Amino acid sequence: MTTTAEIIIIGGGVNGLACAYDLAKSGMKKIVVLEKGYLGVGATGRCGAGVRQQWGMEENIILARESVRIFEKLPEELGFNVFFRQGGYLVLIFDEHEYDLVTRSIPVQNKLDVPSRLLDPKDVAELVPGINLDGVLGAAYCPTDGVCYPYAVLWGYGEAARRLGVDIRTHTEVTGIDVLDDGTYSVTTANGSYNAPRILNVAGARTKDIAALIGIDIPTKPHRHEIAVTDALKPFLDPVVISLKKGFYFSQSLRGEIVGGIGDDNEPSSYSTKSSIDFLFRYASALRDVFPALGKVRIIRQWAGLYDVSPDARPIMGAVDGFDGYYHACGFSGHGFMLSPITAKLLTELITTGSTSIPIDTLGLTRFDKGPLTKDPYVVG
Ligand SMILES: Cc1cc2nc3c(=O)[nH]c(=O)nc-3n(C[C@H](O)[C@H](O)[C@H](O)COP(=O)(O)OP(=O)(O)OC[C@H]3O[C@@H](n4cnc5c(N)ncnc54)[C@H](O)[C@@H]3O)c2cc1C
Fold first, then answer.
1. What percent of the chain has pLDDT over 90?
2. Given Cys at both, which of 136, 177, 236, 336 links 213, Cβ 3.0 to 4.6 Å?
3. CB-side exposure of 55: number of CA atoms within 13 Å?
């Protein structure tokens, strides 16, 4: 049996469900979401929950700022508590190069209404009691950054989308796509086929595989990233503490656990989501360096997920020349949760009106042919 729709969304992660909601709210009637597992089984359900506006490139700052503005209103919008806690983000500075980067970036962020500021080591110690300041020259701090519960955002968007009539089909893996003579897309799954004039490919690290089914080449690579959780502790850590140089991030959850991760430059590209003992040692050592008092705290859980990494670590978003009705968003390189509300808003504008309120032309696939590529120095991991 073939189900027809106005748009087929492939991927039931935060981007798929946020887009489904925004499209339904814009008036689109027949929207189908196809998810091969359960909702959130991909990167969304494994992510570190960080939401920050401190970036180096103006375009990234603007996207993140707009996302935060949407996050702030999401509970009202969706009728769902998404647990957005704006405890700030503290970017530790370990050398002159980072000091120079941060002092150049803060005025750019401030000009764009992001209230970041420079802290000296004494301010850092006041903000985060017990932090080890050895080698710390200071930090950049933005009080309106924070963390948001990924499953709540996912479920909030999903439930609100369902209320607007979106048909969300879990355990429905897309195995084939054909472009028919009339220009519509025929999508094959084990549970039947689907037909629509538009498809939105937001399959996370598998977006490139879905695109390849119709001959679109996306130059992203999957990379495993691991994450761990400690026993619950008394609340002591408001901001997310990160290091651009050392690649770690730590935050304290509502339950009191320290949640964090650390990147590994030597991690090869793969679809592995296995946990490793090597990560556990590197992570525990980084956590103990930053918070010596946590040396004896137990790590109770660890898991892994995939970063979908683009050559310049910036998202790939929009339409593709020669493929009318095809849209995608991927390549978030470990930062796609924080951008999901603005991604959904902009893709919805593009799909329903043909243009976007914030330019996304620099996020298209063609940039990889044109070059040169610019990587934001605030990418972690
Ligand atoms: C350890 C870790 C920590 C992270 N920390 C942060 C953070 O602190 N802040 C932040 O902003 N981002 C973070 N990220 C990145 C963030 O999780 C992702 O960028 C974001 O969740 C991407 O959402 P998505 O909906 O595009 O993809 P996903 O959540 O991966 O969803 C894609 C969905 O597509 C489905 N799918 C794939 N193939 C098919 C198919 N053939 N048919 C049907 N469905 C299919 C998958 O099952 C999956 O559910 C982190 C990621 C990891 C792994």
1. 98
2. 177
3. 23
